[in-house]
Amino acid sequence: QPPLVESGGGLVQTGASRRLVCALSEGPLRRSIVGWFRHAPKMERQFIASLSRSGDSQYYGDSMKDRVTISRDNFKGTVYLQMNSLTPEDTAMYYCAADIQNDWDPLRTTKDSYQYWGRGTQVTVSS
Length: 127
Hints:
By secondary structure, this protein is mainly beta.
């Protein structure tokens, strides 16, 4: 089983909402800090949001701030990214990532902070 598997992507219209799901494999990953990133063609990978192990603390980057909510269900081993008011500029591959080594630090937003990555789920927003 892959360590992280994203789902929920697809083709949506401008203004729509979409919920992405990150399924964490059993074991230490289910107790990890989880982040969501996105990568659009010709762009750097962007940090979107991160969530502490308990789910009590969240941090949002500027890329989608005020339009996304990150949450988790530790019983199911899943992390969610609810995205609202999508625009064509949100078209990208969306990835979840897990950090099992570090303590919670909301300012740790670089991809190097995460040791495990999923393969991504594509979100395409039509105009």
